[in-house]
Amino acid sequence: MDQVPSAAIVTGASSGIGRELVIYLDSISAADELWITGRNGQALSDLRDSIKTKAVIIEADISSDEGIEILRRKIEDEEPSIKLLANCAGIGYRYKVEDQSDSELKDTIDVNCTALTRVCRMCLPYLRDGAGIINIASSAGFIPQPGFAVYAASKSYVISFSRALHYELKARHVRVTAVCPGPVRTSFQKRATRGAGDEFTGMRAHIVKDPADIAVGAVKANGRGHRTYVPGISQKLLHLISKIIPQNWIIRWIKC
Ligand SMILES: NC(=O)c1ccc[n+]([C@@H]2O[C@H](COP(=O)([O-])OP(=O)(O)OC[C@H]3O[C@@H](n4cnc5c(N)ncnc54)[C@H](OP(=O)(O)O)[C@@H]3O)[C@@H](O)[C@H]2O)c1
Hints:
Oligomer: single chain
Number of helices: 10
Radius of gyration: 18 Å
Number of domains: 1
Strand order of the largest sheet: 3-2-1-4-5-6-7
CATH superfamily: NAD(P)-binding Rossmann-like Domain
Number of strands: 7
CATH topology: Rossmann fold
Largest sheet: 7 strands, parallel
Bound molecules: NADP nicotinamide-adenine-dinucleotide phosphate
Order of helices and strands: EHEHEHEHEHEHHHEHH
CATH architecture: 3-Layer(aba) Sandwich
Helix content: 40-55%
Strand content: 15-25%
């Protein structure tokens, strides 16, 4: 019998999709322990106090080597039996490349690509056979997006990386799912506009989704072994179009 408690690790657990994912995992008693990470310690404590599953808080800025090492040390010290890893931490800025600071560009790549990759790697030895990995990408990763170029490219990376990792881990029956939502009602949009506004406008206002629905759908899709989960008709259509229409044509219609 396995004596080590099972764990689900969620990055970006302090708000939005990651927080809702933790709440859902708690509701279905998905693991003995929920490891919740983010920078906002107060939000993580509040989340821990609101759930019944034992929560382990790891406060870390994963855009930095120091933050990554905090997480790595914890994992190597505790040697958890990981049932699920959900990489939800993410950031992006809705500005042209020339209008973003060097640190905004760096943070986007560091959190969305580098940290996600390193967290996957450090968890691999501790993943149970048959475990799941959920990587939150975005439908922005389907097509290059002028005005949101670095974010969209970072999410293309997440989709490509997740698909390949799924095959690398096939022998261990580990399922890797890239989740590709369109607009979701979280603090993402406010951060993406440097605090200018948290509401989606135009067409996005009509298709914006609830983070709890994305979280539940992601866990279910991963459980079914889906390599990609694209929530909603509009994003499924975008996914299809991105496969059949030349990208140079689509880019002209995209307005970020
Ligand atoms: N909302 C959307 O429209 C949308 C659409 C498609 C995909 N997504 C993706 O969904 C994921 C979750 O975003 P969300 O919508 O839930 O937005 P959110 O509410 O802003 O959540 C983002 C999470 O990422 C964490 N994070 C950001 N930078 C970090 C850092 N340097 N170190 C550690 N944690 C960091 C935040 O934690 P702290 O604040 O505690 O640092 C927060 O928990 C992201 O990958 C995002 O790209 C969002």
